[in-house]
Amino acid sequence: MARESKGSLMTVRDDVRVLDATLRDGGLVNNFYFDDDFVKALYAMNVAAGVDYMEFGYKASKDIFDPDRFGKWKFSSDDDIREIVGENNTDLKIAVMADVGRTNFKRDILEKKDSPIDMIRVATYINTLPAATEMIEDAKKKGYEATVNVMAVSKVGREDLNHGLEILAQSNVDVIYLVDSFGAFYPEQIHRLMDDYLEIGAKFNKSIGIHAHNNQQLAFANTIESLRLGASYLDATVCGMGRGAGNCFLESLLSFLKNPKYNMIPLMKFIEKYMVELRKKEKWGFDLPYLLTGVLNSHPSAAIKFIGEDRTDYSQFYQDILDDIG
Q1: Which of 87, 144, 192, 256 could potentially form a cystine with 139 if both were Cys, beta carbons 3.0 to 4.6 Å apart?
Q2: pTM of the full predicted structure?
Q3: Rounded mean pLDDT of 67-83?
Q4: Residues 6+ apart with CB under 8 A from 291
């Protein structure tokens, strides 16, 4: 049975939360080398724009990743975050992402009372759910909000996915995210998937979120389709900044939402001052190679390499992807 819309185009929903992932997803574009002026301005913009959460980056382990090869937001230490936000006496909440197998969460994620962070976002694949559950329970025990992003679900069968979601929903996690890692889904597919996520969320009293990628220029469409059905946690980035084709545009999302607490003026001023120049130095956003990887439900790494080499032999690239997945 088709799920009815939750609210309407003119409705303000009190359950909706917007998360700005520019620093984390955008960090995949430039290896997290953002200077402090940019990060402080991004933080101030999010506060002024009424955004609910700002994701600072990953809590990656320095035992696994060489700090000399990445900027500090790959590791998002509490001290570095506090340098930006102070005591964060604002309504904006601070989030970080912790990848299963890439985070020393017992050592690097402190007790909430000692940290400026409010939310731990656990990222997992379907085959690492036991480890993800352990990280979720650790975060909750330490006093944080906890969410989980199940990545690459376009490669997972529906039965396996729903079984995995049931496992996660029985944990103490607060929010379960539908993640379109490869930008492969169309709104009709998002609708079917979101029905499953929302059904499990209702059964176990969990909120549901959406994190969409823009390979087929559908990140915004898939985000508002999820919102329409009942998803309440919505990820976006400024100018869609993110790996490869990028993400749902924060400016599109805030323009769509009717809640008067969201203010576009600070966002536009930030784009004018920072993003126009940044786009001249860094490459991200929709391009034909990303469309092809999205259509073929493939990881965007091949497209990133293709674009980095300034190639334009698109038909050959298309054949190469077909050969790889054949």
Answers
A1: 144
A2: 0.96
A3: 98
A4: 215, 216, 217, 245
CA angle 247, 168, 234 (to 5 degrees): 25
Q: How far apart are CA 120 and CA 2, in angstroms?
A: 33
Average pLDDT over residues 207-231: 98
Could you give the CA distance from residue 150 to residue 141 in angstroms, rounded to a whole number? 21
- Do residues 147 and 169 make contact, with C-beta atoms less than 8 angstroms apart? no
Residue range(s) of every CATH 3.20.20.70 domain in the chain: 17-281
Please tell me the distance from the alpha carbon of residue 227 to that of residue 229, in angstroms, as a whole number.
5
Residues 290 and 147: their CA atoms lie apart, in Å, by 28
In tens, the pLDDT along 131-152 reads 999 999 999 999 999 999 999 9
Q: What are phi and psi of 51, to 5 degrees?
A: -65, 145
Tell me how far apart the alpha carbons of residues 321 and 144 are, in angstroms, rounded to a whole number: 41
In which residue are the tokens 């993640």 written?
179
What value, to the nearest 5°, has the Cα angle with vertex 30 and ends 278 and 184? 95
Percent pLDDT > 90 in the chain is: 95
Task: Identify the bridge partners of residue 237 per DSSP, sorted by sequence position.
Answer: 249
Q: How far, in Å, CA of 230 to CA of 93, rounded?
A: 22
Which homologous superfamily does the CATH classification assign to the domain defined by 17-281?
Answer: Aldolase class I (3.20.20.70)
Cα–Cα distance for residue pair 167/185, rounded to 1 Å: 24
Q: What angle do CA 185, 215, 206 make, to 5 degrees?
A: 45
Pairing of strands 53-58, 17-20: parallel
Rounded to the nearest 10 degrees, how much is the dihedral formed by the CA atoms of 215, 147, 137, 144? 130
Is residue 101 within 8 Å of 128, Cβ to Cβ?
yes
